[in-house]
Amino acid sequence: MAGGSSAAAGDEAKVVTILSIDGGGVRGIIPAIVLAFLEKELQKLDGPDARIADYFDVVAGTSTGGLLTVMLAAPDKDGRPLFDAKDLAQFYIDESPKIFPQNCRGSIFSKIGSALALATGPKYDGKYLHSLLHRHLGDTKLDGALTHVVIPAFDIAYLQPTIFSSFQLENQPAKNALLSDIAIGTSAAPTFFPAHYFETNDGKGGTRAFNLIDGAVAANNPTLLAMNQVAEHMVLAGQQPAGKSYIVISIGCGTSSLPKLKYSAKDAAKWGILSWLIKDGSVPILDMFNAGSADMVDFHLSVLSAVLGTSHQYLRIQYDKLSGSAGSIDDSSKANLDRLVKIGEELLSEKVSGVDLETGRNVEVPGGGTNAEELAKYAKQLSDERRRRRNN
C-alpha cells in the first residue's frame, strides 16, 4: 500500500484521520461538491498537488460513497490519486445519464413500463456502470489503494455484511478484490441494479465467491464502521484506541425534509409488496433501512464522542431539506443534476449542525460557523498533522 497519508492508523501517529461518505445514488454530487471545497482548502495550504488521499488514514464509503472512495484513493499510472476532487461532480454530471438512462421518465407509458420491469428484474442492467469502472480502475486491487479503504457490501449468499477493508488483508487475503468489483458490489442497490458476483484468490490455492448487493443494507453511513476497523487494527497492534486523537469528517448525500411525515402507519398498513418496493418515485423499504442505519450511527457516535472526549473531533455535513426529484437516487435529468450541484454549494454556506437524537432533525451547533468555515479549520489541522508526520 502506498499510504498517501504516510501513517497508517495504528502506527506511531498520535492522530487518526478518517473521511466517510454516505450512499445515495446520483446524490453523490452533494458530497462531491463538499470534497472539492475541502481539497481546494488543502491546496491553499500545501500547493496544487495536494489531494484528499494524502491527508486521511482511512477513506470509507458506501454505495455511491464507495464509488467516490475508490475515485479518491485509486492510483493513476503515476501513482497519484485517479481523480482530483474538483472533477468528481462533473464526473457525475457526465456519466449519470448513461448509468441511469431516463427513457422519457415522466410519461405514463414509462411509469407503467418501469412497474412491469420491476416485477421481472432490476430497473437498470448496470452494464454501462460496470464498463465505466473497469475502464477507470483497471486491474487495481484493494491493496493498491493510496490509503486505507473501508467499503461495505452485503453478501446475499451468507445474509451478512461483507466489509472490504485494507486493514484486514493480512488475515483475509480473499478480500483483496479488484476495486472495480468492490465498487460495483457496494452500489448494487436492490431493484435498481443486479446483484454482483465475482471470485477472488483465497490465498490458500482456492477461490472465494462473493454475491453482493448494496452496502447500504449494512451501513449507509460508514463512519462507525471505519472507526471500528481502526480500533480493531490498533488492538491487534497492541495499542489503545482511546489513547489516540481523532479527526473525522463524515459527508452525507442528503435526506428528505422532516417536518412533513414521509410515510404513515395508516397508509403502510394497506401496502402490498409493490408499494413497499416503489411508492411515489421512492423505494420505502430502502428509505427505512438507510435511515435506520444512519440513525444508529448517530446514536453510537454520540456515546463514542463522550468516551473519547475532547480528543475526538467529528464534523458531520448533511443536507436535510431534500424534496421532489432531488430526493431520488436515480433522477439524472439535467434539471435535477443542476439542482444537486446548487444544493451542494448551498450546504457549504449553511451553519454547522448536529443530529437531535430524539427527532432525527439537524440542529445548528451553538457558536458554530458555516460548514465551509469549519472545513477550512479542519483542512488546517489535516495539513499540520501531515507536516508533523513528514518532519518526524
UniProtKB/TrEMBL annotation:
<protein>
    <recommendedName>
        <fullName>Patatin</fullName>
        <ecNumber>3.1.1.-</ecNumber>
    </recommendedName>
</protein>
<comment type="similarity">
    <text>Belongs to the patatin family.</text>
</comment>
<comment type="function">
    <text>Possesses non-specific lipolytic acyl hydrolase (LAH) activity. Hydrolyzes phospholipids as well as galactolipids. May play a role in disease resistance.</text>
</comment>
<feature type="domain" description="PNPLA">
    <location>
        <begin position="19"/>
        <end position="227"/>
    </location>
</feature>
<dbReference type="GO" id="GO:0016042">
    <property type="term" value="P:lipid catabolic process"/>
</dbReference>
<feature type="short sequence motif" description="GXSXG">
    <location>
        <begin position="61"/>
        <end position="65"/>
    </location>
</feature>
<dbReference type="GO" id="GO:0006952">
    <property type="term" value="P:defense response"/>
</dbReference>
<keyword id="KW-0443">Lipid metabolism</keyword>
<dbReference type="InterPro" id="IPR002641">
    <property type="entry name" value="PNPLA_dom"/>
</dbReference>
<keyword id="KW-0611">Plant defense</keyword>
<keyword id="KW-0378">Hydrolase</keyword>
<dbReference type="InterPro" id="IPR016035">
    <property type="entry name" value="Acyl_Trfase/lysoPLipase"/>
</dbReference>
<feature type="short sequence motif" description="DGA/G">
    <location>
        <begin position="214"/>
        <end position="216"/>
    </location>
</feature>
<feature type="active site" description="Proton acceptor">
    <location>
        <position position="214"/>
    </location>
</feature>
<feature type="active site" description="Nucleophile">
    <location>
        <position position="63"/>
    </location>
</feature>
<dbReference type="Pfam" id="PF01734">
    <property type="entry name" value="Patatin"/>
</dbReference>
<feature type="short sequence motif" description="GXGXXG">
    <location>
        <begin position="23"/>
        <end position="28"/>
    </location>
</feature>
<comment type="function">
    <text>Lipolytic acyl hydrolase (LAH).</text>
</comment>
<dbReference type="GO" id="GO:0047372">
    <property type="term" value="F:monoacylglycerol lipase activity"/>
</dbReference>
<keyword id="KW-0442">Lipid degradation</keyword>
<dbReference type="GO" id="GO:0004620">
    <property type="term" value="F:phospholipase activity"/>
</dbReference>
